[in-house]
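We append the chain.
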Amino acid sequence: MADTVRITVRQRAILTAIIESYIETGEPVGSGTIARLQSRDVSGMSPATIRNEMAELAEAGLLEQPHTSAGRVPTAQAFRIYVEQLTERVQPAGRAERLPARSRQQIDRSFVGVAGTQAVLERTSHVLAMLSSGVGVAIAAATEGDLLEHVHFSRLAPTSVLAVVVTRSGMVRDRVLALDRDLSLGELEIAANFLNENFRGWGIEDVRIELARRVEEERSEYQRLLESVRQLWGKAVPAAQASMPPVYVEGVANLVGSRVDGERLREMLGALEAKQRLVELLNAYIDTQQESVRVVFDLEEQAPQMAGLVLIAAPARMAGENRGTIGVIGTPRMDYENTMNAVSYLSRVFDRVMLHPSEQ
């Protein structure tokens, strides 16, 4: 662990300079590069002194040499020390305020006209990807126990129907359904009215169970209606997704430009596309009661395909109530401080957008 490595103040300054240079260029860093920096913390150090200190840092497992003639690159342990240093500088409550005013204004403009939990989360994933050049992720709070508010079916084409399911928490699920047989506009309207009149206020999964029970009991023309309703509901809210919260992922293409071999990239992209895996990943690392942004390097412990990626995330709240989790998944070469500040600022976006829409 990072806290077991003891380094001097000078070594810490050199390590910070190496990490920031590596984040900026992606190239191994040599002692000459650090000696030429104008940073106050390393100013005046000779290349020989820096070279000796870099050798000590390498011995401590904080730097590695990818090629015999190349400079050094920071290890995962070095990045942990760097992030700990950034965290120590700022109190959790003050991190959002450290985001540059231009970035705050850009974020606020992005949410003009956006309303509702789902729309805010979807826009959040887009904004995080844009600001971080990583993958923006936003996951709604678990919807187990969420109640049905309204359902609507629209006929798109023969055997093709658009279903819109709205829950009491404000979540909206829309799906294009491929049916086994064609249903007329009248049949779709009757089905929607049946669900709205009989099941408003019911738990999402409870509706499925009750429909199956009624179909089993009825032996009449009524059963034909029930069977149509059951089929529509089953396709609109698949059993595997009934309690799975909506997940929004944006910016996967940002990883394509990273220096990762093709096979590893395919594994990463596959993991990011498996939304259920993302839910499990964030739930494993992010406590919805925490107040600060968390940076996680060891993602492979929960998802082996995520080895080599870093997660920066925080719970999103409105008026003290958890509305989900937002974050960025990227390579170790991300701008940690800016991304941490952006995640912190956006974790409060619900209060600004949904409680004070007139200020947007």
The longest helix spans residues 9-25.
